[in-house]
Amino acid sequence: MVLDSMSGSVIDIFVHSRAEGDLNAVEVHVRHLRQVFQVMRENKLYANLKKCIFCAPEIPVLGCYVSKNGVRADPEKISSICSWPTPTSPTVLRHGLGLANYLHKYTKDYAGLIQPLSSLLKKGATWLWRPEHQAAFDSVKTSLASAPILMLTDDSKPFHVVCDASDFAIGCALMQFDDEGRERVVSYQSRQMKPAEHNYPVHDKELLAMR
């Protein structure tokens, strides 16, 4: 919880606390803050009070928002993706997919969704925007627009993995049950298959997603 040593002139410190024993989350959080301040004092580190946020229900971290409910994608990034016009060249498509790729963990079977678009970016491919490309393009935007709030991992609970495979891609979801017994997604992962992998039986493709 507490950093034993810190160095550098600019440091971001995020403190996330859960209830422990007879202490509620706020009481534990205050204790953690005191520990952090003690380490800072010992290392002669200073904080700008105007830039500090205490006891916030949600904070922005590395392009996402973290709260007690989980991790959600930055709504501004989602809005930017959903307002994309239809790409007119490989360069425009590649630029757009760059941002979508960053948010892939929120999208089930992301690699499968973008497969038709990826084919347009292959070396020597002819740029010809067909209905299947538009459908894939729209599917990516729809999927991200309805992106779930991902569960914060809880090491005291077991994890389980759900795997799936299509003709072109493999994917999996890391899952946990929350305190209310609801099955929640921690993260989606997927990738397109290599040429030799296309010939695998379905069960082997699903096992491949576990690697």
TrEMBL record:
Keywords: Multifunctional enzyme. GO terms for molecular function: catalytic activity. Gene3D superfamilies: 3.30.70.270. Signal peptide: none annotated. InterPro entries: DNA/RNA_pol_sf, Retrovirus_Pol_polyprotein, Rev_trsase/Diguanyl_cyclase, RT_RNaseH_2. Transmembrane segments: none annotated. The keyword Iron-sulfur does not apply. It comes from the Eukaryota. Residues 129-210 form the Reverse transcriptase/retrotransposon-derived protein RNase H-like domain. This is Reverse transcriptase/retrotransposon-derived protein RNase H-like domain-containing protein. It comes from Phytophthora fragariae.
